[in-house]
Amino acid sequence: MKKIVVFSNMYPSNEHPTYGIFVKNQVELLKDSGVIADVKAIDNPKGGKVQSLLKYGKWFAGSLLYLIGNQRNLALTHAHYAFPTGLLSLIGKRLFKIPYVVTVHGGDIDKMAKKNARIAGLTQTILQEASHVITVGERLKQEVVTNFGVLETNVTVMSMGVDRTVFHPLVKEQVRSELNLPQREQVILFIGNLIREKGVLELVQAFEELQNKLPGVSLHLVGSAKSAAFVEEVKQYIAARQIGRIHFEGTKPQKELAKWLAAADVLALPSYHEGFGLVALEAMAAGTPVVASDVGGLPYLLADGAGILVPAREVEGLAAGIQQALTADETSNRERREELVHEHSYEMILEKLLKIYGETERTR
Asked: In CATH, which superfamily holds the domain spanning 3-161+345-360?
């Protein structure tokens, strides 16, 4: 295979090490397998309206110049997110006949495509003209096929995968000691952007309920304060209600996230919408039970008792689900969780991805 280029509007940097880390992990996986891959991506999540326009404009122009300069050497392009990222791949196909693959992550369908009819139309064109569409969850596949008219044979469900060399069970006492966590507390963990749509406020409210039933419990929120105003709202709620044992832990590199997952008694993922829910898979790989909203790709991932599903935006149901996880037998459905981790392991993902690339790349 000749060189490929990966386009993404999310990619980590030294300042923002977890921003789009799943894209970088896949790129590194490809490179380790021998694929020559360049990356054209945005690695800074910050910015208001004007700054974002400038940021996206610079990235888009630089990516177009890259396509012009490398058009003869590219076997294909791979866009993460249908719009706006997939527009670059569409241009590459129409101007230089470079085939492309696009991965749909969820927000590009659930939010971006619903902004207006023009974006919805462009999203449909991008998806229909792709040589292959990858969706990170089964529900997204159904939407792509049903709502955007993509042939089902051109769509593959494939998560971003879990690195089992990073995420695996660890000795709980040892990692708790490393993280300065009390050995006897029941630790509830949240990992994700601290934004309203992730259900953070509902989680805090559910935790308040749980403290009356399970006194030795703590809540740790790991992630970026993407919305400072929302985080302040949550902190004011905590202060007004005098809720103790809630800790804002900030962002963590992946290897440390793996320790947090192994140290926790339960991972809570109360999102309003979720394309796949990769952190839930990482929790399963670490041997930690998952309680998550019954939205997006999570019902498929946590089916057959692999996790506990609760209604989104419902505090009482979330509290009940977490209590159930904290009092359940830790060995329940372990076999099913291990099957899922294997199915979504890097080895299996790489095999599928290289097959798609092989069927997509231009040979001339």
From this structure: Glycogen Phosphorylase B; (3.40.50.2000)
